[in-house]
Design a protein that fits this description.
three-stranded antiparallel β-sheet, globular, 13% strand, 104 residues, single chain, 62% helix, alpha+beta
């Protein structure tokens, strides 16, 4: 007889599991979380992020590169400045749900 839990389990393909694990790894770095949290209120350039987060501009740029590659932030160029925002509302919801879970 099959176990009641195993019969209703619908496993994701291995590739999807690895992609999801990589996605959550991005959230495993406190510097990246600080950047994402700062961007939840709107767009900022690297210098403003660095100032707000007490980080160096190169450190912020490094984190933004990773966040862009993960499709969590978007960039907009305006002259010499590049402004960053959260890629979409899903990112904001992920941050909110994660924080809500930590408070439980």
């Amino acid at each position: 007889m099959d176990h009641p839990c195993s019969s209703s389990l619908d496993m994701l393909p291995e590739e999807d599991i690895y992609d999801l694990a990589d996605f959550f790894k991005v959230f495993g770095d406190s510097s990246r979380l600080k950047v994402l949290w700062a961007l939840r209120r709107g767009e900022l350039c690297v210098s403003h992020l660095a100032e707000q987060l007490s980080m160096s501009a190169p450190a912020v740029s490094h984190q933004l590169k990773i966040l862009r590659q993960s499709h969590l932030v978007r960039a907009r160029r305006d002259g010499k400045n590049i402004y960053y925002t959260l890629a979409d509302d899903h990112v904001h919801k992920i941050l909110e749900l994660g924080l809500e879970h930590t408070y439980e």
